Structures are given as C-alpha cells and as structure tokens.
Amino acid sequence: xxxxxxxxxxxxxxxxxxxxxxxxxxxxxxxxxxxxxxxxxxxxxxxxxxxxxxxxxxxxxxxxxxxxxxxxxxxxxxxxxxxxxxxxxxxxxxxxxxxxxxxxxxxxxxxxxxxxxxxxxxxxxxxxxxxxxxxxxxxxxxxxxxxxxxxxxxxxxxxxxxxxxxxxxxxxxxxxxxxxxxxxxxxxxxxxxxxx
Length: 196
Known about the structure:
single chain
C-alpha cells in the first residue's frame, strides 16, 4: 500500500534502473554486463543477481535495505565516497538527515514476509508497528499519547482482521484501541490508540 515504482521509457536489458517510493521486494536475475539498480530518495542499490527488500517510504527519515541472497552495492547519487557492498543476512539502515549508514545482522525472512501475506514483528517499536499496520490494512491510525510509542510489540499477522489485531495489541501493550467504523464509501476505518 502506498508504494510507487517507476522506470524510464528506455528500460531494457542494457538499462535496468527503477525508482522506488515505498516498499518492494526484488528478485533480480544475474546479468554481469547489465546491472539492475533501484534509486530510493538518493540512495542507489546496485545489483547483479540477488533477492532483497527495500523500504523507502517518503514520510520515513530512513531507508532500510535487507539482503536475502546474493550481493548488492549501496551508493549515493550525491556522494562519490559513499559505497558499501552488503552480504546476505545484513540490514542496512540509511539515515537521510545524517547521511549515515548503520549495519546489523537481520533475519531476511522477517523483513520480506509481507510479500507472502504475513507481517512478522519481533520486539518492534509501536511507532514502526503503527506505520506498517496503516499500510497493511489501509486504515487511519491516530495516536493520542506519545507514551504509546514506548511500547514494544511481537506477533505474526496473517489472516486476522484489523479488529482482531488491535484487540490483541490493546491486551499485550497495555494501550486502549478504539475502532471507529466509517461507513461512507471512500472513507477509511480509523483506530485511535491511547495509553491506559
């Protein structure tokens, strides 16, 4: 939800470059002479053959790249000295404001599970959970108390309705989740989350 992927009119085997706003999982076939690249808000992920996930929603101040297999090279269109080659199982977090790259080991299956119809949260901050659930269910979520963001959430979401998920969140995170159903055709349901 909320993702756009664009590519130039001359996209071909020789010129494989796309621009991403949002989140996408890529599985790219190896072509040594014709690398594939993804541009996301200045960060460039260069690929020969691999599987990887890029999370680059424009409202976030960070871009996350998780490499499942193969190799990718990270570069930046504005900084020639910016260059890093990722290994499988690594998560790179690029801060737009600070122009810094943080690397961690990651379970790639957790980060790319959304493409298989699952959201997996492991000790995730409530701020991240709220953002992901907004997109997953295409709903509006209002957090009325900043203390809600201090909560940590773990769980796996597959076929549950948003009503079930927020009922569960209100129990395990000690918050109140009020559901407001909007029955107008174009309107999204709304969830209001507050501290108990």
